[in-house]
Amino acid sequence: MSCSLKRFIPVITNNKHTLQAIIEKSLYSTATSSPNTIIVNGKEFETDSEKTNVPQNILKLTDKALHLKASHPIGILRTLIENKLNSDDHAFEVYNNFKPAVSVFENFDSLGFPKDHVGRSKSDTYYINKDHLLRTHTSAHEMFCFGNIQKKITDKPGYLISADVYRRDEIDKTHYPAFHQMEGARLWPKTEAGQKQLKKDISVLETKLNQIKNFTVIDMPYKEETNPKQKHMTKEEVQLVSTHLKRTIELIVAEVFNKKLASEGKTNEEIKSRWIEAYFPWTAPSWEIEVWWKGEWLELCGCGVVREQVLTNAGMGTNEKIGWAFGLGLDRVAMLLFDIPDIRLFWTDDQRFHEQFKENTISSFKPYSKYPGTIRDISFWVNNSIDIHENDLMEIVRNTAGDLVESVKLIDDFVHPKTGRRSLCYRINYQSMDRNITNEEINNLQDTVRANLVEQYKIELR
Ligand code: DAH
């Protein structure tokens, strides 16, 4: 994530009749609730002036549940992976209906996020109030799902969770403030019998992988110095859990990319992937898998051996269970599987998009038309006494132009040698996925973006 403008404190004016107040009211309140509450998926939450920053246009996305639509690319991909993982022993309970409003505790604390982790900041995350937010990842539900295993609400040793997640982020063809993840996890008793079972489970996966001839994996020997294990686990336990984890993910990668190759009639092409070390607060050791696709390494999935703290937070005893967890981003993989050029398309209501996809089928999207875009630059002197984060600028553009904005890019950043003032220039590319746009309409949007920036961040336009 590129951040050229750093964190800062937005100005809050006390005068309720200012444009600022009008903008905030229109962004953060709803027609159906009082100004002090917002409704997320039918549930009312109190707002607070300090933390609430989730705008209406984002709240609207929380009812879409694209991952549940059987003939939407996100739904097709979800089903494909679920079916693969549950194909032999049905070890995974499937949860696909968790709502996106979760507690700060679930999203961050239960997973061991440090108090000063950047993910917790208002510039990265949509807060409903100081205790609730729109989940930034599906890991927010790990505690609940591990709890269900502990309470024997499910008799399956693993689970899969698919859901929409939300992040304040940059704007371009692969970033949207809402996207989808699949979380997976699996546990074994930390006993001899548990280890025996693990070895058996690994051999099932290895047999399957050996049958796939066009799949190569580059892995490095485990290095404890750079990717430490947890003290309560033996080296053998780490070795077994991580082998099961890696073979499971490799099977998913091979399945998904082989389906893509098959849909293009290229079944003999090689699929290459590699493991790299990673860090996540709730797993140790941790890894990421990447796949070589169209000339570059594409990051697919983070994962690791679940930290004991996460399991005890879910009600398990110490030294009771060991296991792994992974989190996989569905949107970017779906873009590549279905040849979707712009992430905004997933969210369109245009039938010309939806009628192209069929349940359980990988197919190539055919653009129905390429509508011309138009560019507007915005240059301004930053106000030195008011920090502005790049994501705040993105948010203003998004709140104003919605899905008519294709990308926003920093194209110039300089400090005046004499005055020391900093000047920035952003290029906004306006383009609709479904229709032609007029100059007049875009000029109006651009004027509103400029006015909002001046009003909220006291910048000086150039
Ligand atoms: N939640 C992580 C993310 O959003 C992905 C992830 C990484 C999930 C490692 C996991 C994991 O369960 O073990 O980037």
UniProtKB/TrEMBL annotation:
Keyword Cytoplasm: no
Domain named Aminoacyl-transfer RNA synthetases class-II family profile: residues: 163-367
Cellular compartments annotated: Mitochondrion matrix
Origin: domain of life: Eukaryota
Ligase among keywords: yes
Record-linked CDD domains: PheRS_alpha_core
Annotated EC: 6.1.1.20
Catalytic reaction annotation: tRNA(Phe) + L-phenylalanine + ATP = L-phenylalanyl-tRNA(Phe) + AMP + diphosphate + H(+)
Cellular component terms per the entry's GO annotation: mitochondrial matrix
A GO term, aspect molecular function: phenylalanine-tRNA ligase activity
FDX-ACB domain boundaries: 369-462
Principal place of residence: mitochondrion
UniProt KW keywords: Aminoacyl-tRNA synthetase, ATP-binding, Ligase, Mitochondrion, Nucleotide-binding, Protein biosynthesis, Transit peptide
Gene Ontology BP, a term: phenylalanyl-tRNA aminoacylation
PANTHER family: PHENYLALANINE--TRNA LIGASE, MITOCHONDRIAL, PHENYLALANYL-TRNA SYNTHETASE
Record NCBIfam families: pheS_mito
Recorded family membership: Belongs to the class-II aminoacyl-tRNA synthetase family.
Function: Is responsible for the charging of tRNA(Phe) with phenylalanine in mitochondrial translation.
Name this protein carries in UniProt: Phenylalanine--tRNA ligase, mitochondrial
